[in-house]
UniProtKB/TrEMBL annotation:
Keywords annotated in UniProt: Magnesium, Metal-binding, Molybdenum, Molybdenum cofactor biosynthesis, Transferase
CDD domains: MoeA (cd00887)
Highest taxon of the lineage: Bacteria
Protein name as it appears in the record: Molybdopterin molybdenumtransferase
Length: 474
């Protein structure tokens, strides 16, 4: 992290890459825990899972029909069906050993039922008369309504070969096979496999618990009536939704007023349920930038004092007041060479050194900052290998509705990496168009964007028809 002196003098401007590298160096994957399968969805498996029993564990029917000896059907035809004696039913869930299929015999069998001894194939019911003595059957009669119960005779109109319509034991996976490798992200198919081999839980890196907190006395909650000078709090909702989309368990805290002591107390209350804290607002140079006021006092301590605090961090914070707990921290407030999102903060806070990222308050700045810095941090804590949104190249086209005259090229301040909202069209020749202006308060345009157009630090003008870097958000 940057030195206190460097930040105090404002001597250093961080690049986007430097700030992100600093975050990812400090953020560690969460310790593995055992979770029930549904709770483990989306998490990263930390152990190799082997198959304890074959899947399927026994030969079973893939059709509703009749379990037979294939040799008894080899001359069967529509004109001269094979006539077999039905000896009973084999239902799914039965042991399959109650009946033995001998020569000239057949057993009605249901999908998933074990193949009875003596049988080596299954004739689909549609290839028979269903025991009615009439033409081909379209379905199997219910057990209670079957002619003569489950006895009588069945006429088979087509021959089957050995093992036809039989799912062989171990045909899916065999005992001892590797079911899933460590590092696998558990989605629905993987959870299906784990449950199919009898695993009720999995050892995974859990989803990080992310607390999202917005600041500003001007913020009202949606549903409330706006007073003079107020606006609705959109940032905490946007960032909570983005954190959830990234894979986190999210706790959204209502807006905190511009009071440093109130903010300290709120952060202290939230630390108990946070693996990561994200604040928005209050990190610039204004007189009411409460996040900086609440968290910068630690930066005034001598380095040896911070080292002493680090040694005591594991002792807990029982009995300490909010200010003491919050001061058990090291948070750097930085200027980044980017637009929007120049003011940023990052550090650790509280007795467990919980990571905290402080984002600017303008809605677009806040969201762009989340995508660049918070989302990768969340995914790193989950142990995921793929931390970042996809990045592609696309042809830059004028915005829709630009008219007949081509608008002026996109411009960007020299030395800053600019992120503009855009709409992306894929295909053989990907294209991207700007949407909305460059103002960091224009949240309406953000709602229609599915990409960020990236103009590097060395680019001051991007011409229409040229190729640009695009971060895909969807």
């Amino acid at each position: 992290m940057s030195s206190t002196t460097e930040q105090a003098t404002g001597a250093r401007t961080w690049s986007v890459a430097e700030h992100l590298d600093d975050i990812l160096t400090a953020v560690q994957p969460l310790e593995p825990i055992e979770l029930n399968l549904l709770d483990a969805q989306g998490c990263v498996l930390v152990e190799q899972v082997t198959v304890p029993v074959a899947l399927p564990p026994f030969d079973n029917s893939s059709m509703d029909g009749y379990a037979v000896r294939a040799a008894d059907t080899e001359r069967a035809s529509e004109a001269s069906p094979a006539v077999l004696t039905v000896i009973g039913d084999v239902a799914a869930g039965s042991s399959g050993t109650e009946l033995t299929v001998g020569p000239g015999r057949a057993a009605r069998i249901m999908t998933g039922a074990p193949l009875p001894p003596g049988a080596d194939a299954v004739v689909p019911v549609e290839w028979t008369d269903g025991g009615t003595g009439a033409g081909p059957a379209s379905t199997m009669a219910p057990h209670s309504a079957a002619p003569q119960g489950s006895g009588g005779q069945v006429r088979v109109h087509r021959p089957v070969t050995p093992h036809a319509h039989v799912r062989a034991r171990g045909g899916d996976v065999c005992a001892g096979d590797v079911a899933l490798e460590a590092g696998t992200v558990l989605g629905p198919p993987q959870i299906a496999l784990l449950s199919a081999i009898g695993r009720p839980a999995a050892r995974v890196r859990p989803r990080p618990r992310v607390v999202v907190l917005s600041t500003g006395s001007e913020l009202a909650q949606p549903g409330e009536e706006l007073a003079a000078g107020q606006i609705y709090d959109s940032n905490s909702f946007a960032l909570a939704a983005a954190a959830k989309d990234a894979g986190a368990i999210v706790y959204r805290v209502g807006a905190v007023t511009d009071d440093a002591e109130t903010l300290r107390a709120t952060i202290e209350d939230q630390l108990i349920r946070a693996d990561l804290l994200v604040t928005t607002g209050g990190v610039s140079v204004g007189a009411y930038d409460v996040v900086k006021e609440a968290l910068t006092s630690v930066a005034e301590e001598e380095p040896e004092e911070r080292e002493g605090e680090a040694a005591e961090a594991t002792e807990g914070a029982v009995g300490e007041d909010a200010e003491q707990a919050v001061h058990r921290a090291h948070v750097d407030f930085r200027t980044l060479a980017m637009q929007p999102g120049k003011p940023q903060g990052f550090g650790t806070i509280g007795p467990d050194r919980t990571p905290i990222l402080t984002l600017p308050g303008n809605p677009v700045s806040s969201y762009v900052s989340f995508e660049l810095f918070v989302r990768p941090a969340i995914r790193a804590m989950m142990g995921l290998a793929d931390l970042h949104r996809p990045v592609v190249r696309a042809t830059l086209l004028p915005p829709h509705g630009a008219g007949d005259e081509e608008p002026a090229p996109l411009t960007s301040p020299e030395g800053k990496r600019q992120f503009l909202r855009g709409t992306y069209t894929g295909g053989e020749r990907p294209e991207v168009r700007p949407v909305g202006g460059s103002g960091s308060h224009l949240i309406g345009a953000l709602a229609h964007a599915d990409a960020l157009i990236v103009l590097p630090e060395t680019v001051t003008e991007a011409a229409w028809g040229g190729e640009v870097e695009v971060v895909l958000l969807g």
